[in-house]
Design goal:
globular; Na+/H+ antiporter like fold; about 400 residues; transmembrane helix; 19 helices; mainly alpha; transmembrane
Length: about 400
């Protein structure tokens, strides 16, 4: 009997080790699955570095069409399928929401950036920070909020996707009219920016045509089609959303936008024209700037309890607050890059424009990276609020 039971005992002793290995493998798979967007950003950046000609503008896949139209179109088509029409109409009438998001984008963001630019101009006498990069930050500050990542991240954090959608459409309709003049007004009147001030954009007509064409084809048309399908075939639409995981596919489209942006950067050798100190400044300042604007948006949306009790300035609901916090700090490349070249196309500013594009390209990429982690923070905040409300309601019932 001892000879028979010995293998059984040995197998039993091996079982915990096998169980532990399977558990670790399962945890690793779960970690990779939960962070797939961050891993994907790393992958597309590597692809952009080694094969920049594939996804650059006018590259092999013609990313200005295949990505800027198709990928963005998929994002807004999915949004149209999943958002009730009545929610869009409600948020169209929400003036406080409009003022808060557009005010952050066009006032608070530029005010802080302009203060930092003047601080650098006063202290960086050796010009370690390229003046074209500083001009690029002022240009970035004058842009409207982005089109796609706001909607995707708001949805991921269980915020009000309809609120985000309404605001990005408003911002990108107004942006082409507001941004050019606002950017020129923000540029410091110093010798470092004299060439930019002297060539203040005589090619805006082509830019308007390009931007509104893209807005119509990649945003408004897919959104309208999605809304019509959800109205007339609601059950079938819901089945498609759940069966084919369309919301996940629309999130993956963000990776294509990042791939295209970095491919253009590497193809034009933009990183090689500035110092390592300048690159470090851009990368770190972008993260700080995005987080600071997020905190400001949260504070304005949900002020302290004392301010929140004032009738004319109530605290916003948590889901709308999340939409504000993703829309307020974000900036767009979809309008940014066409506008940059439209405003100074006639001038001989090729290398300068390449360096100016770095802040907007890197900021819009880093905002997706940082927002991915902000999503987790907002999910935890919502869970905490729900738990607190459940406890309070149970106490009231007692």
């Amino acid at each position: 009997m001892a000879a028979v039971t010995a293998p059984d005992n040995e197998a039993a002793s091996d079982h915990p080790a096998k169980f532990k290995a399977r558990t670790r493998l399962s945890q690793a798979i779960h970690l990779v699955a939960s962070q797939w967007l961050i891993i994907g950003i790393g992958v597309v950046c590597v692809l952009a570095y080694f094969f920049p000609n594939v996804a650059k503008e006018d590259g092999i896949i013609r990313s200005q069409y295949s990505i800027l139209y198709a990928a963005v179109g998929i994002i807004f088509f999915v949004s149209g399928l999943s958002i009730p029409s009545d929610k869009l109409l409600i948020h169209l009438r929400n003036w406080r929401l409009h003022l808060l998001i557009q005010g952050t984008s066009y006032l608070f963001f530029p005010a802080f950036v302009l203060a930092v630019v003047h601080l650098v101009l006063a202290t960086d006498t050796s010009k370690n920070i390229d003046r074209s990069v500083l001009a690029g930050y002022i240009f970035t500050a004058g842009l409207p909020t982005t089109i796609s990542s706001n909607v995707v991240m708001t949805r991921a954090a269980h915020g009000d996707e309809a609120a985000a959608l309404v605001e990005v459409v408003i911002a990108n309709v107004l942006g082409p009219f507001i941004s050019p003049g606002w950017i020129m007004a923000l540029l410091p009147r110093t010798a470092d920016f004299a060439l930019l001030l002297a060539n203040n954009g005589s090619n805006l007509g082509d830019m308007y045509k390009s931007v509104f064409k893209q807005l119509g084809i990649s945003v408004l048309a897919p959104l309208a089609v999605g809304q019509l399908l959800s109205i007339f075939w609601s059950k079938q639409t819901l089945w498609c959303l759940e069966t084919f995981r369309l919301k996940l596919i629309s999130t993956a489209c963000l990776l294509l936008l990042i791939w295209s942006a970095f491919s253009t950067c590497f193809a034009t050798n933009a990183f090689e024209t500035i110092t390592p100190q300048c690159i470090a400044f851009i990368v770190l300042f972008n993260v700080f700037l995005y987080l600071l604007m997020t905190v400001i948006c949260f504070g304005l949306s949900r002020p302290s309890e004392k301010i929140g009790k004032i009738p004319f300035y109530p605290r916003m609901p948590p889901d709308i607050t999340i939409a504000v916090c993703f829309c307020g700090p974000a900036k767009t490349t979809a309008l940014g890059i066409p506008l940059l070249h439209a405003m100074w196309k006639s001038a001989d500013l090729g290398p300068t424009l390449g360096r100016m594009s770095l802040p907007v390209l890197l900021y819009t990429t880093e905002q997706v990276f940082v927002a991915h982690f902000v999503v987790y923070a907002f999910k935890a905040w919502l869970r905490k609020k729900e738990k607190t409300e459940t406890i309070e309601s149970s106490q009231d019932s007692v």
